[in-house]
Write a structure and sequence with these properties.
Number of strands: 5
Strand content: 15-25%
Largest sheet: 5 strands, mixed
Strand order of the largest sheet: 2-1-3-4-5
Helix content: 25-40%
Number of helices: 5
Radius of gyration: 14 Å
Shape: globular
Length: about 150
C-alpha cells in the first residue's frame, strides 16, 4: 500500500479535529526532502486560543523541528483556504508553496477577502495551488456545521 499524500494526511487531521469538536481543518508541513515535519488540526477550543488554527500549529511545530524561524523550501497542505491571520503567518514563515482544498469566500485571505499575498506590503508570496481534494474538504466542513444547526 502506498503512503498517504500530504493532503490525505491533512484530511485525516481535519477528521481528528472534528472528533474533538473543533472546526475540521487539518494542515501538514512537508520539508525540502519531502518528509512530513508537522501535522495537526484546529485546536482553538481545546487550547482556548483563537490563534490555534491548524496552519499556525504546524508552522510552529515545523519551525521547532528545523530549529529555524523560516520554512524556506517547505510546503504547506491545508484543507481550507487560509484565513488572513494564517496567510500572513505563511508569508512570515517564507513557505515555498501552499496547497489547499476548499475555498473560503467568507473568511479566506488568499484568493478571497484581503488576498494577503497580492498586497504590496507582503514580503513573501508562496506559490498557491487550490482545489486539492476540494470535495472531501468541503464535505467535512458541511457535515460538521450541518450537525450543529
Amino acid at each position: 500500500m502506498s503512503k498517504p499524500s500530504p493532503m490525505e494526511l491533512a484530511l485525516a487531521q481535519a477528521r481528528l479535529a472534528a472528533a474533538r469538536d473543533e472546526v475540521p481543518i487539518g494542515a501538514v508541513v512537508v520539508g525540502p526532502d519531502g518528509a512530513v515535519l508537522a501535522a495537526d488540526g484546529n485546536r482553538v477550543e481545546a487550547m482556548n486560543d483563537p490563534t490555534a488554527h491548524a496552519e499556525l500549529l504546524v508552522i510552529r511545530a515545523a519551525a521547532a523541528a528545523l530549529g529555524a524561524p523560516r520554512l524556506v523550501d517547505c510546503d504547506l497542505y491545508v484543507t481550507l483556504e487560509p484565513c488572513p491571520m494564517c496567510a500572513q503567518a505563511i508569508a512570515f514563515a517564507r513557505l515555498r508553496r501552499v496547497y489547499y482544498g476548499a475555498a473560503d469566500p467568507k473568511g479566506g485571505g488568499v484568493e478571497h477577502g484581503p488576498r494577503i499575498f497580492s498586497q504590496p506590503t507582503c514580503h513573501h508570496a508562496p506559490e498557491v495551488y487550490s482545489g486539492i481534494a476540494e470535495t472531501d474538504a468541503a464535505e467535512l466542513l458541511r457535515d460538521f456545521f450541518r450537525a450543529r444547526r
